């Protein structure tokens, strides 16, 4: 799904549910730790930038590669998002 389509769907379907139950918590769309330009952490960063004002309570990231074999350890993926989430 493209970031534009995801943002549009989030605003149309997810955001309005807060009106039904205010204590509901929303996780971001789930991504993997892919470093490809249009996937994974880059996709999530683009989604968060385009979905400004969206109510997202926590981030969902599937870390699918064992730590020793991946060049980017999990804590380093946290830092770009830590100031906002």
Q: Poorly predicted ranges (pLDDT <50, ≥5 residues)?
A: none
Number of domains: 1
Rg over alpha carbons: 14 Å
Give the overall shape, derived from the CA principal axes. globular
Amino-to-carboxy terminus distance: 23 Å
Mean pLDDT: 81
Strand order of the largest sheet: 1-2
Which structural class matches the secondary elements? mainly alpha
Beta-strand level of the residues, as a percent range? under 5%
Instruction: Give me the number of helical elements.
Output: 3
Extended strand count: 2
Task: Please tell me about this protein's structure.
The longest helix is centred in the first third of the chain and has 12 residues, at 3-14. The chain has helices spanning 3-14, 40-50, 74-78; strands at residues 31-32, 61-62. It starts with a helix and ends in a 7-residue tail after the last helix. The chain has one domain (3-78). The chain has 85 residues and is mostly helical. 33% of the residues lie in helices and 5% in strands.
Task: Provide the fold topology.
Blueprint: H1 3-14, E1 31-32, H2 40-50, E2 61-62, H3 74-78
Parallel strand pairs: 1-2
Helix pairs in contact: 1-2
In a nutshell, what does this entry contain?
The protein has helices at residues 3-14, 40-50, 74-78, and strands at 31-32, 61-62. The protein has 85 residues and is mainly alpha-helical.
Keywords:
85 residues; mainly alpha; two-stranded parallel sheet
